[in-house]
Amino acid sequence: MSTSRVSPTSSNTLIKTPKPRIILDCDPGHDDAVAILFAAQHCEVLAITAVSGNVPLKLTQHNARLVTQLLELDLPVHAGASRPITAEALHAEFIHGESGLGGPVLPDLHYPLTSEDAVAHIIKTVREEEDVWLVPVGPLTNIALAFRTAPDIIQKIKGISLMGGGTFGNVTPMAEFNIYADPEAADIVFSSGANIIMCGLDLTHQYMVDTQTIAAIRDIGNIAATFTADLMQFFCDMYEEKFGIHAGPLHDPCAVMAITHPELFVLEPRHVTVELTGTHTRGMTVIDERRTIDAQPSNLTVAQSIDRDKAIDLLIETIKLY
Ligand code: BDR
Ligand code: CA
Predict the structure, then answer these.
(1) d(Cα 309, Cα 214) in Å, to the nearest integer?
(2) Which candidate, 57, 203, 266, places its Cα nearest to that of 65?
C-alpha cells in the first residue's frame, strides 16, 4: 500500500502529501468498521487497538480482526482495556446489535490477534516512531492508560483526533457515548496538553448516511461495498427505531478524515473539559463558546462542520478502491 496521497493544488499541479501515520483505537461497532475501511486507504495504519465500548472487549477485538480479514488488510490488531478506569462497563448493543456488527452475514474469523496489551503497544510505537497520530473512536480508556503509564508519549505524539463529546448527548441528555462510557479516561486525555482534534456529535450528525447513499455504496458491487451497505442499513434502521432519525450519523470516520482531508472541515480552537461529577451532566464535554475576555484559553481544536456531500463522495470513491 502506498504511503502518500496525491492532492490537486490550485495551479492543478499534483503534490504528494504523506499519509498520516496513525494508531486507530476502536470498538467496532458499525461506524468503527467504516473508519477502519477509510483509514486503511488514506493513512499509514501502524496498528488497530481495540477497547471495551459498543460491545465487550472480546467482541470489539474480534470484530476489528473480522473487518481486517474481510477487507484483506494486513494490519496488526491488539486488544486493550476490558473495562473503563473506574466507571461500570457500558455497552451500546441497542444500536450495534449483540455482535457489535449487526446486519451483514459475518464470516468465521481466522485473522490472528497480535497481542493482548494494546496499551504497551501504543507506548512502544509512539516512543519508537515519529509523527504518530492517535485516532480513538471509542471510549478513551486505552489512551488514558497509556498516558498515565508513560507521560513522556504525550509530547511525542503528533496529535489525537478523536470522536467524542459535543454540545448534546446520545446516552444522557448531555453526554455522548464514548465520553460517558469512561469519563475519567476522557478527563485524563482532555487535560493532558496533547494536540487534540475533537469530532463531537454536533459534527458527526452532519455526516448522515441515508437510503440514497446506501444504494450508491451497494451499487459499487465489491465485498467492501456490500459489507458497508449491510452495516449502514442496520445502523440507519436502529437510529430510526431508537432516535427517530431517518439516517445514520457516520461518527467515527470523521476523526480519520479530519486529519486526512482537513480541507473538508471547519476547525476552531476551544477550551473543553469533561464533567465528572454533575448530577445530570456526568460525561458531558463542557465547551467554552464565550467570545468574552473571560473565555478560557483553548486546549483543543473542535471540528465544527464538515462538507457532508464531498465527504460522502470521498467515502464512495474510497470503497471503490477495494
Ligand atoms: C460513538 O459511540 C459509538 O456507538 C459509535 O461507534 C461512536 O464512536 C457515537 O456516540
Ligand atoms: Ca466507536
Answers:
(1) 14
(2) 57
Q: Probe ligand 1: pick from 24, 26, 31, 161, max atoms within 8 Å of CB?
A: 31
Q: Which domains does the chain have, with CATH numbers?
A: 16-320 (3.90.245.10)
Return all residues near 45 (Cβ < 8 A) that are at least 6 apart: 22, 23, 24, 39, 73, 75
What are the φ and ψ backbone dihedral angles of 307, each rounded to 5 degrees?
-75, 95
Give the distance (Å) from ligand 2 centre to CA of residue 132.
Answer: 20
Q: Evaluate whether 51 touches 141 at the Cβ level (below 8 Å).
A: yes
Cα 295 from chain centre? 28
Q: Does the predicted model carry a pTM greater than 0.90?
A: yes
Helix residue ranges, H only, 71-182: 93-96, 118-128, 141-149, 152-156, 177-181
Using an 8 Å Cβ cutoff, are 185 and 140 in contact?
yes
- Choose the catalytic residue: 30, 78, 251, 261: 251
Give 271-310 pLDDT, tens digit per residue: 999 999 999 999 999 999 998 888 889 999 999 999 999 9
Q: Which protein residue has the closest C-alpha to ligand 1 atom 4?
A: 54
